[in-house]
Amino acid sequence: MANTQATLEKIVSLCKRRGFVFPAADIYGGINGLYDFGHLGYLMKENIKNSWKKSIQNDLGDIFFLDGTLIGPHAMWEASGHISNFHDPMIDCMNCKKRFRTDDDNINTEKSCPSCGIKAWTNIRDFNLMFQTQLGAVADESAQAYLRPETAQTIFVQFKNIWSTSRTKLPFGVAQIGKAFRNEITPKQFLFRMREFEQMELEWFCKDETSMDMFNFWVQKRQEFYKSIGINMNHIRMYQHPKEKLSHYSKCTFDVEYEFPFGFKELEGIAHRGTFDLTQHTKFSGKDLAVFDQETAKSETPVVVESSVGVERLFLTLLFDAYHEDVMDNETRIVLKLHPKIAPIKAAVLPLVKKISAPAEDLYKELKKQFINIDFDESGSIGKRYRRQDEIGTPICFTIDFQTIEDQTITVRIRDTAAQERIKISQAATYLSKIIS
Ligand code: ATP
Fold it and tell me: Cα–Cα distance between 174 and 57 in angstroms, integer?
């Protein structure tokens, strides 16, 4: 029997075939760990980001947004600990010159190289994952800078500016969606481990005495987010870091893990980071990042609860979760059962035959005024056109047929069940709004 499960190969192929994701610089052979997002990929990423922005709104405190720089000075990364600690253990095969992470499940340095079968390892070295660059023409130490490996640090270094301009009080959050760069030794599993990716990070600043409650609040709320975007929660598990694996400053850390075909892997990290980040930047910059509490008339350094998830890792998760194959009209159908909030195209307008394209075009133009991501397709059999939309996850199709000319009704065809119903053409926009809200 054919394998109908989602596999990495099927997802990669679908992404390229339908214009979600292309290897970067594809005509030059691609670059490992770098990808460009096509029209559908772009739209889907925007939907993910918008859902995330909504999901962090809450009743406990304000959320402010930041759009920080991608390049940061040496001193900033020294303070954050990235210069000394942000590395992975690396080993090379001297025979085939392949490079590996020694903490990779597939690597056993007691055995031979999994690529060439010869045992000729170098020593294990630490490899810093940050991309280093030089600002300006003078190559001295003061010009040394790095592409950020996470968005969080730009939030911490702007903490005082945000605090003093926002007129807020603890607790509050600063959120950022933006690029991060990591020179991963072995980028793999498509969008799972990339060298350039986007993160959605929330740094929640609160008082020490309430910080564990706040932590638990966010652990709960982040799970609600995954449910709200349609992820099958049977594939999600919460992994609590054991005490001995916790960073020295963290009171508690959970990973939200998703069950990929290659095992349960981290999708998001949620960490109680204590006062570590603000204290470090205070120490290294000489600027006091404590805040004055009117109630207690004391200065205090807020505790940080962080949640951090990669846009593309979530994108990949959503594709795996939504991918289904079934048989329809004796043909295998690939369908992405994406939540309508996430689906890149919200609806397609299809004239049954080209002869009646005019009313279909009118409906398409009308819907485009309200929803930007609407598709129009008049080529090929109607069955084939439904399949094309199923494969990219379009929740509904509006079909214009001969009856439309007579009574101004259209067929609504539902992606997941292929069920059909008739509605008035004038109800199409309202129908669609309800489905995607
Ligand atoms: P991993 O152990 O999987 O490398 P990490 O613990 O280094 O992850 P964090 O530093 O906690 O990851 O980053 C927060 C989130 O950013 C991760 O949960 C993941 O969603 C995303 N992320 C991190 N590294 C990458 C990467 N190389 N490619 C894509 N997404 C990433």
Answer: 11
Give the C-alpha separation, 393 to 21, whole Å: 15
Distance 280 CA to ligand 1 centre (A): 22
Q: How many residues does the chain have?
A: 437
Q: Which two tokens stand for residue 233?
A: 């929660």
Cβ of 193 below 6 Å from ligand 1? yes
Residues 270-293, mean pLDDT to the nearest whole number? 97
Instruction: Answer whether residue 141 shows pLDDT above 80.
Output: no
Residue percentage of the chain with pLDDT more than 70? 100
Q: What strand order describes the sheet that includes 99-101?
A: 99-101, 87-92, 125-128
Atom of ligand 1 nearest to the CA of 271: 11
Burial (CB < 10 A; 0-12, 13-18, 19+), residue 402, is exposed
Scanning 101-169, the segments in alpha helix (DSSP H) are: 152-157, 159-166
Whether omega before 171 lies within 30 degrees of 0, making that bond cis, reads yes
How far is the C-alpha of 249 from the C-alpha of 305, rounded, in Å?
12
pLDDT surpassing 80 at residue 46: yes
Mean pLDDT, range 281-303, rounded to an integer: 95
**Tokens representing 161?**
């500016």
Q: How far is the CA of 395 from the centre of ligand 1 (A)?
A: 30
pLDDT digits (tens, 9 = 90+) for 142-165: 789 999 999 999 999 999 999 999
Alpha-carbon dihedral angle through residues 193, 194, 198, 201, given to the nearest 10 degrees = 30
Name the residue of 266, 306, 309 whose CB sits within 8 Å of the most ligand 1 atoms, as the mutation to test its pocket.
266
Residue nearest to atom 10 of ligand 1 (CA): 150
Show the domains of the chain with their CATH numbers: 8-72+147-319 (3.30.930.10), 345-436 (3.40.50.800)
Q: Which residues contact 430 (CB under 8 A, 6 or more apart)?
A: none
State the pLDDT at residue 136.
87
Ligand 1 neighbour 309 (Cβ under 6 A): yes
Show the beta-strand stretches assigned E in 86-235.
87-92, 99-101, 125-128, 132-134, 144-147, 172-181, 196-206
Q: CA–CA separation, 386 vs 393, rounded Å?
A: 10
- Average model confidence (pLDDT) for the chain? 95
Distance CA 139, CA 13 (A): 44
Is residue 247 within 8 Å of residue 333, measured between CB atoms? no
Which pair of tokens denotes residue 326? 């079934």
203 C-beta closer than 6 A to ligand 1: no
The secondary structure element, H or E, covering residue 236 is strand 236-240
Secondary structure (3-state) at 436:
helix
| pTM of the predicted protein model | 0.95
